Task: structure prediction
Amino acid sequence: MSIATLEELRAELIVLEERIDAGAFVDSDRLRALAPAARHWARQSDEAHPIPRLARLMMRTNASSAARDLLEFARPIARDEDCSIALMLANATAACGDHRRALAILAPLADANSANAQLAARAAELHARLGNAEESLRLYARAAKLDKGRKPQLLNALIAAGRGGDALDEARKALVERQDDPATRIAWFKALAKFSGDRDEIARARADLLAWLPDDLAGSLWRAHLFRMEQDDEAAFAELNAAFARWPNDGGLRKARAAAALALGFWGRDAGAIYDAVSVSLDAPDLRAQIARADKLLRAFGGSLGKAAADSGAFAHVRSPESVFALVADEKPAAPESGRGKGLAMIAHSLTAGGAERIVATLFRHLRESGRFDWVKLYLLNLSETDGSDFYLPLTGIDRADVVLLDRGCRIEEPFDFLALDAARTAQAIHDQLVKDKPAIVHASLEPLTLTAGLAALKARVPRIVLHTHNMRPTDLYPGAPQPPRWRDCYRSMLARAEVRLVGCARASMEDYADWIGLGAMDKLHTVYNGLDFEQFQPASDAQIPARLRAALGIGRDAPVIGTAFKFREEKRPALWVEAALKVLEKHADVRFVMFGDGPLLAPVRELTAAKGAQASFVFPGLVPDLNRWLPMLDLFMLCSSSEALPNVLLEAQACGVPVIAYHVGGIAETMIDGETGILVREDGAAALAAALLRAIGDPDWRKGAACAGAAFVRERFSTQNMTRSVSDVLLG
Result:
């Protein structure tokens, strides 16, 4: 339509706003057609008020790039005292996937306008997206100080950064200040659930929170939010279904119910809830796009959202992600492609301080140097100095610039757009890089990246795909989490393809996967033991070395020292480790305990030792980059994880001449010779661990013999040469 005056333009924008507010469809092309008039009148009147209004409408209809271009034009000519145009421009730029450019726009404004909580919070969010954790937390703290309503953002940022003590302090401060809004109370409970070591306290807090939430529509929405936060999407969907029975005409509830059904992934079974939101999602472009994807996936199986809504039983088998893997696995394998040679792409999430990441870095270096491949590249999702995801970069033997950092801001296409957004971005980024590089072989490590990378590699027609797990079945590693049980069918579809192999780091791991997936044979599964670089792990060459190391930690040279090293997480059971240590202290008050590592449960464990009055007997050095240097100071190494495949730290401790004690779970029996290099504890509980420790403490001759036998044992079985040769054989078929 022709716009003759500024008043006509404003009137047209009001009409379009009302249509969108009412849930009516507005074509983004109609909005783009208004851009020339908006630019004209912004120039003529020397002000840009029509442009922000039009840009908001464009953002609401998912036309982010058009909004960005319009705001770029407006910014130099607008009087932007409150920085609203700059903030909108940063948001539009971020919506286009360019978070670095968005931050470049916003960061100087946030610094110059230090009293603006909105600018600080948005800049903090962008810093977090880019991995700048410290700067993000600083800005969130500023925003929360300026506006107490932003306290939940600060709490959630502290939780995401693993700052347990700070998160609990901020949460308790908010409660003292009587911030009783649901967002703050739920963030407080989230901090407590993640970082408190007291299960009874957590249970009481959860019950109190649920009782506090009102029995109305808002209360139902907050309860559903809590359940989704706890990764219980079924409970969230059930809560929203119950609310829908009481308030069936509430548009916000219908959208929330559809979003919960989409997140749950049972798109055929729950098609009615998704289909019901079609008429109210016109002002929610992201939700509308997800609904369209669900419809498209159902059409690939001969249905549609409408058909499944009318007869959910007929399409209950259509699910995401399982059906997506089935679709790709059913595609006809590619014919052999010339020109691929023997290039190898190794894919991992990061090089953070974990046992599996150490293996990835070491294996990459040795495979690259082996000469058996035309080229070897390392693809990573994250490699940041600020969050420690580059911890093992030096082990790779390459520079930061040589790592291929995957672009997860790419355009997502079918079939990856049928996946949850995070998985979709990852799979698409891997796929696009594989299409560009054309490797003959892909090696991917750790769930869920093994699955997303494997799916991307199949779609990219890579001839040989090796998925490398370092765990027992993932349902044991993540008990109660909703997604791991659903990975089973994804693996089943993948392993039906001739191109795909699964590698595990222990026989027990591969037997467990075969049982879990339901494989009739083991021919697609291979055991490759982890390998150590024994030049880094050596027993102490003289008695003065342990004494100096102990002195550095404030420990007497003659005190028996029991240690461990792990990420302080639930499956490592650090509180149980402390409980066993306390039982040992009852018999030997001179024993000292050293717990290397960091993680979300570090602060609660330190609080536990203080509450027991035993803090003087425990040392927490944190995460150290040279654990190999510290291990020889220990007399015994103890691990009490609930699930392990082949923990590297048990191999490393024995290589340094330290006998090991651990539960008989997973593949731990394969890491030692029971009774000769360590002790397998077959009974669960702190008492059994303490009994094994006391037996070893009381037998110095056994410890001396175990130290020698352990060092010889791991050198024979767990060398990097053996690992590299075995993995190469699997990769090359």
